[in-house]
Description:
The chain is an alpha+beta fold. The protein is 17% helix and 32% strand. A hairpin with a 2-residue loop joins strand 1 (11-12) and strand 2 (15-16). Strands 3-5-6-7-4 form a five-stranded mixed β-sheet. Strands 1-2 form a two-stranded antiparallel sheet.
Amino acid sequence: GAHLSLLRRESVGRFSLSRSLLYPGEHTVKEIEKALIPISEALSFLPTFEVDEDAAAALFGGKQIQLKVVTENAEEVYVKMTNGNAVCIASVRSSTIDGKSYLVPHRMLI
């Protein structure tokens, strides 16, 4: 029968070995900076919501915030401020009581 002697994953989605570093290893600051992916690029596969400073502060405090428009539920969305700064990964939930949609923070990105 057949057998496999080596299996090497060279990419996962948008991430590839050409932009990676071996760990542990000694790397220069320049190599590390080149390998770093901006969070907006790394999370570009998620739906994105922009919020103002007050909403970002509420999310940082663990509070859910009401969306201005009713939106379909989503397990994970990327939330950033209007200035581009990352806020959190959140879910979108619709209330069965008032029918409004809310952003519910899960993982803060600070």
